[in-house]
Request: fold
Amino acid sequence: MSVFDWFSGADKGSPDAPSVDSSDKLALYESAWCPFCERVSRTIEQLGLDIQRCDTGQAAHAQALVAGGGKRMVPCLRIETAPDEYFWLYESADIMAYLRAHAERQK
Reply:
């Protein structure tokens, strides 16, 4: 795999995660120090998506990530599947593939 493929997330297909009809139902948990979070951030910018961002450097966001997703790993995409029901997607390549598919559905 080339460095370009790694940064673009070309190594993965679409993850098995529920699709949603709006970016309002997505939230990205991230940290400024994390290179994998940077990969996801670039994808969000390239796709022009407006997604809630949650910096886990803030205690409230870190606690919400652990309480909801079960671990403090970043990046993590929280997908609201129903009111107060969430699917937590980890791994930057899976998140980027999901976001690309989401953006394609929004067209």
Q: What stands out?
A: The first helix runs from residue 3 to 8.
